[in-house]
Amino acid sequence: MKIKQGPLKCWDIYAMHLVEQSKSFKVREDIKALSILKDKYKWNFNIADMLSNKAFDAIVLTSIDREILWVNKGFTKMTGYSTKFALGKQPSFLQGEKTTKASLDTIKTGLQQQSPFTNQIINYKKNGSLYNCELHIYPLKNKADTVTHFIAIEKELRLF
After folding, report:
1. For residues 59 and 44, what is the distance between their CA atoms, to the nearest angstrom?
2. Where is the signal peptide, in residue numbers (predicted)?
């Protein structure tokens, strides 16, 4: 028995499809931008593998001295801060009164050890509201195996 297919009747399914396409496009856009930086700094890692395995809202690239060099569009959407405002600052500008010392110590230790780590931290948006952020931070090494940058892949978590 052959089933006759008609027009899509559920707009929710179509809308979900469009959302997934949009996310995929944004990931490809981030991969393209980071690939250019990878070539420039001669990093030794696979960007696509790193990004395709994680759900994320924002990406922050810093120098070894933690100066922000690049953020993706998701950073602005998540924090409310423009790229122009963030560039040249340290990510600590997002921290505030409810950011715990334990979270900061974990980040400091992870950066000093120059190995990948995950942490959660309370940060603050431009409008002053706080958000719980899960960080996956990776040291980026050049072909000489020297850490030259750090990349943070960030996901906003619900505060409940």
Report:
1. 18
2. none
**Burial status of residue 142 (CB atoms within 10 A of its CB: 0-12, 13-18, 19 or more):** middle
Q: What is the mean pLDDT of residues 35-60?
A: 84
Instruction: Give how far Cα 61 sits from Cα of 111, 153, 158, Å.
Output: 13, 9, 24
* 154: β partners: 58, 135
Where does 42-69 have alpha helices with state H? Answer: 47-52
**Domain boundaries defined on the chain:** 11-157
DSSP label at residue 2: P
Q: Would you say residue 33 has pLDDT above 80?
A: yes
Compute the distance between CA of residue 30 and CA of residue 97 in angstroms, rounded to an integer.
Answer: 31
What is the pTM for the complete model shown? 0.81
Q: How far are the Cα atoms of 43, 60, 91 from residue 66, in angstroms, in the given order? A: 17, 10, 7
- The CATH topology of domain 11-157 is Beta-Lactamase (3.30.450)
With 50 as the cut, is the pLDDT of residue 114 above it? yes
